[in-house]
Specification:
single chain, 92 residues, alpha+beta, Immunoglobulin-like, 2 helices, 6 strands, 17% helix
Amino acid sequence: MNRHWGGRVLQWLDLPPDVLLDIPRLETVGHLELRLTNHRGVMRYEPGLVVVRVPRGRIEVRGENFRLGSIDHDAIWLIGLIRTIQFHVAGS
């Protein structure tokens, strides 16, 4: 879907972009918590690195003392000291 029509559809349906465009949504609470929705699974999990598959690539979160607050089919809640969040888009 091109961006012009996608934007119009979003306005008309009053939907958030992540729903229609199949992209992840990240919400942070400072540098201590991250909630990531629209994921495709955890690829790697270590105390200082979490790699999550998303529809068009992966997201790497680096920091310290990570633990999973919760995880389900669509959302991950990560707790710990977040230092960086890096997006890796497939094909880039």
